[in-house]
């Protein structure tokens, strides 16, 4: 029996089935191009009881978040600016100073805590992947290279602020994780979490954000239940444009802060998510996107034109593997992350190069897989206008940007 990772109810209702896929950040070394590769079913269910959308697990987090984890947060200026703005905002809001303690869970390469360092506000990052943690440590960001959970939380200093950006989805045992948060939080401390909003995933068909690394997909309806089960209130919520539309939720120990009207308003926006039929309707929209992007790419190839892809994003790997978009369509991919360059995209084995390659080969089309950064990326690619290159986006709908 498959059971819900939060409430243990039996999982019976499928949300979407994206077929067999390799782990999305499992980039392939060129010498392994012709070797066997792991593929696992990528199936998500919605729990009829608590409404948590979740994968059926085939990978442990130790398998996915390894010492050569390839996602470095600092390669997007948009994301760095977002982190800096948050640090300014929250430091002021909570009057943080050099006697305060901040803990970030999944602090990656220090993309955010570096800004607390600039303000001399003591901080500690918890990051299990050595590849990214060592970059943070080299920058002077205090980092423990460990997975966070109930047991390890007992060794941490008590925090005025615990934050986690895009981490909750990566945690298989969310109850253990939240028990840890409760332990590490000061009685009057604040927790903020950011995560892509399930409502946007569904409304804008962001199915490519589904991959094995993301065990869960969150609505506020669910998060409120999760917090309550661990003695915490959600006392405020903000909607953010990041990653296709995210929520930033503010939590505290139960009854310690007044609850903002924003919480009730957002729950109201989500009311359709209380209805299981809403979830069942999703998978047909996903199939529609697959047909549309394939139709466009086939048409372009029939005209004898060339296509490359920009951004070796995890979400691109879901798109390519689900749709069967391989080297027959895409000549190569590019990404600014040196760690990804010269490797192959998992499953489809498209080579990842430095973005400089674009100027050398002058492709007719560039498919931007991290659509969440399309403005920043198109801005960087203005020089491709010289030869009339066009951009393609697959999500929320297939579109050519001239
Ligand atoms: P990006 C990430 O998913 C990672 P991914 C993670 N799994 C998560 O939870 C979600 O976000 C929310 C590159 N790039 O961030 C950098 C350029 O090369 O959309 C990245 O490899 N040039 C933790 O992997 C990729 O594109 C640029 O100018 O789907 C972007 O990946 C920019 C802006 C990015 O997410």
Structure commentary:
The chain is globular, with a radius of gyration of 21 Å. Strand 15, helix 14 (374-380) and strand 16 form a beta-alpha-beta unit. It has a 7-stranded mixed beta sheet with strand order 6-5-4-7-8-11-10. It has helices at residues 61-64, 77-93, 113-118, 130-138, 150-153, 174-184, 198-203, 220-229, 261-269, 276-280, 282-302, 314-323, 357-361, 374-380; strands at 13-21, 40-46, 53-55, 102-105, 123-126, 143-144, 159-165, 185-196, 216-217, 232-240, 246-253, 307-310, 333-334, 352-353, 365-368, 390-393, 399-401. The model has no long low-confidence stretch (mean pLDDT 96). It starts with 12 loop residues before the first strand and ends with a strand. The protein is of the alpha/beta class. It has 14 helices and 17 strands. Among the domains are: 147-280, Vaccinia Virus protein VP39 (Rossmann fold), CATH 3.40.50; 283-401, Rossmann fold (3-Layer(aba) Sandwich), CATH 3.40.50.720. Ligand JHZ binds at residues 71, 75-76, 166, 169, 196, 213, 243, 311-315, 335-337, 370, 372-373, 376-377, 380.
Any key phrases for this structure?
single chain; 402 residues; alpha/beta; Rossmann fold; six-stranded mixed sheet; 17 strands; 31% helix; globular
Give a nutshell description of this structure.
The protein has helices at 61-64, 77-93, 113-118, 130-138, 150-153, 174-184, 198-203, 220-229, 261-269, 276-280, 282-302, 314-323, 357-361, 374-380; strands at 13-21, 40-46, 53-55, 102-105, 123-126, 143-144, 159-165, 185-196, 216-217, 232-240, 246-253, 307-310, 333-334, 352-353, 365-368, 390-393, 399-401. It is an alpha/beta fold and 402 residues long.
């Amino acid at each position: 029996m498959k059971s819900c990772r939060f409430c243990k109810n039996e999982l019976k209702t499928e949300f979407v089935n994206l077929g067999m896929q390799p782990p999305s950040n499992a980039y392939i070394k060129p010498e392994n191009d012709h070797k066997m590769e792991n593929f696992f079913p990528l199936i998500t269910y919605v729990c009829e009881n608590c409404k948590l959308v979740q994968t059926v697990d085939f990978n442990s987090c130790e398998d996915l978040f390894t010492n050569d984890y390839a996602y470095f947060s600092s390669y997007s200026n948009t994301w760095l600016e977002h982190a800096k703005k948050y640090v300014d905002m929250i430091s002021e809001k909570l009057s943080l100073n050099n006697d305060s303690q901040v803990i970030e869970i999944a602090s990656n390469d220090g993309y955010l805590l570096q800004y607390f360092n600039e303000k001399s506000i003591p901080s500690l990052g918890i990051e299990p992947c050595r590849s990214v943690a060592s970059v943070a440590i080299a920058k002077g960001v205090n980092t423990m290279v460990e997975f966070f959970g109930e047991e390890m939380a007992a060794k941490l200093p008590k925090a005025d602020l615990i934050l986690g950006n895009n981490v909750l989805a990566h945690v298989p045992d969310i109850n253990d994780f939240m028990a840890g948060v409760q332990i590490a939080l000061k009685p009057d401390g604040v927790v903020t979490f950011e995560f892509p909003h399930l409502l946007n995933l569904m409304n804008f068909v962001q199915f490519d954000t589904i991959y094995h690394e993301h065990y869960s997909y969150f609505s506020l309806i669910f998060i409120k239940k999760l917090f309550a089960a661990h003695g915490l209130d959600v006392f405020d919520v903000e909607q953010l444009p990041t990653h296709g539309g995210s929520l930033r939720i503010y939590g505290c120990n139960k009854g310690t802060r007044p609850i903002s009207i924003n919480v009730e308003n957002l729950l109201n926006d989500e009311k359709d998510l209380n209805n299981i039929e809403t979830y069942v309707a999703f998978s047909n929209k996903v199939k529609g996107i697959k047909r549309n992007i394939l139709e466009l790419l086939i048409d372009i190839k029939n005209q004898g034109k060339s296509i490359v892809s920009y951004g070796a994003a995890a979400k691109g790997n879901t798109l390519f593997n689900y749709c069967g978009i391989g080297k027959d369509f895409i000549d190569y991919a590019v990404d600014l992350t040196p760690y990804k360059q010269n490797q192959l995209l998992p499953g489809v084995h498209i080579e990842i190069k430095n973005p400089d390659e674009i100027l050398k080969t002058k492709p007719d089309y560039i498919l931007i897989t991290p659509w969440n950064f399309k403005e920043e990326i198109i801005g960087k690619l203005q020089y491709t206008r010289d030869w009339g290159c066009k951009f393609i986006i697959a999500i929320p709908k297939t579109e050519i940007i001239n």
